[in-house]
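Long-time lurker. I teach an intro course on protein structure, and each term I like to show students one example going from raw sequence to a predicted 3D structure in token notation. This year I'd like something fresh instead of my usual example. Would anyone be willing to generate the tokens for the chain below so I can use it in lecture? Attribution to the forum is fine with me.
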Amino acid sequence: MTLAACIRPQDPIVTSQDCLAAVPAGYTRIYIGAPAKGGQQSGTSFDDPLDGTTADKFDAILRSVSEGEHPTLGSQSNIAPTNLIVCMDSGTFQTNGQYDWRFGIGHVAGIPRGFTVEQGWKIHGRGPSHTRLQLASYFPFQFVDPAGPTISGGRNVVIGTHSKHASGVEISDLTVDANHDRLTSAGGVPLNLENITLRSTQGGHWVHDVNAVGGSGDVGFLDEVFETFAVRIWGNGPQIDPSQNTGSIVEHVNVTNPGHAVVDGSPNGGAMDGIVVNNAVAEIRNSLVDGFQLGYGGWSMGAVSFHDNIAQNVQYGFNVDSFSNVGLIVQNNQFIKPSLYGIVIGGSGPTATFGNWTVTGNTIELARPGSIAMVLRGQVQHSVFSNNTFTASGPSNLTAIWSYQAVSGVVNLNNTFQNNRIDRSMAMILSQDPNFNTNCRFQNRDLQGQALPSFPDNSSVACH
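-- Reply from a regular --
Happy to contribute to a lecture. Here you go:
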């Protein structure tokens, strides 16, 4: 997969079939845009949409539905809070986003503002170059870390779910703009602004053909407890089996243009990750993360598949180092010139498991001094690393694999390294892992097909 495959040219105006075909039984469909001259704002077509030309107007339409008011909107009445199709016309629509909404609590500030999405909602634009949903405000917030200082800042999510039952949400064909740089400035209020957070007990979400821009983790840079995520598939509750939240797909999503640094020393976007999954099973494919601290990852995952994605201009291409994560597939991705690490796995602690992974067909290109293609931090076991390519286009102090125990008692055991292609100039840091020889190594070669003295075979037959 080439980079061009992930970056769309100026896209044409598109219309989802959800906005063209007959409305399915049990669904309501509304159209939002600028009022048509002489129209009635019936909300039943792009030619006569509901008025969404201010944040308050836009939010009031959707909030009245998701919060169970059973409103009359245009020519339609008694609209149920679930199974809503929202067809957004071309243009920029401002919103107060999720604002102060909290599961099980409601509006913590006490004043209805912003909107959230409920079960079975589908939000479609006319294409990422034509429809933009943009944050107009943030919720002032005191970030309290019991082990650290309290930080005065702000937070918001452009599109967030209303309740733990809000499964089966689809978002497509628009730009979701967290608008960081217009909401604060260098030296100003630190903001954690996320683009899409779909949290639910069950999954079935589909996010596709979306540009996510302007996100930030300013507060996370000050205190890593408050790390943020541009696009997040989230199973509700840390103790829930991730297999209860399944069937979500994120594809053709470009996470780019993070907010500028607010805090001295911060990278653009602060401590913000691109596309992540936690407490869930999902497929992340054919997407791009450009310019953020971290490209892809998550925690407490089941058999999540990350494939055919690109991360560039990041510190970490892919990172999974917390809680247990079993059966992941990381395949055919490109991690281009990460400043620190290409792929990082493991190390959470003796009770965590990073087992039965398949890491295959990935390309990691290193160019930054001191960067490392793959880091195994412990508890990586019974996994396969095959047909990956590690290339160097920069200085000589680059490392292909670093294997060690991040915490006492965590070990990397019984893995397979087979048919990988590794630039001969890259070092191997394996001496810190006394268990590394439990891993089967077969037919790993340099880029010219020659044996690697730094990573010799220890098996004469293919690993199993």
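Some talking points for your students: The chain has two domains: 14-303, 315-464. Confidence is low (pLDDT under 50) at residues 1-8.
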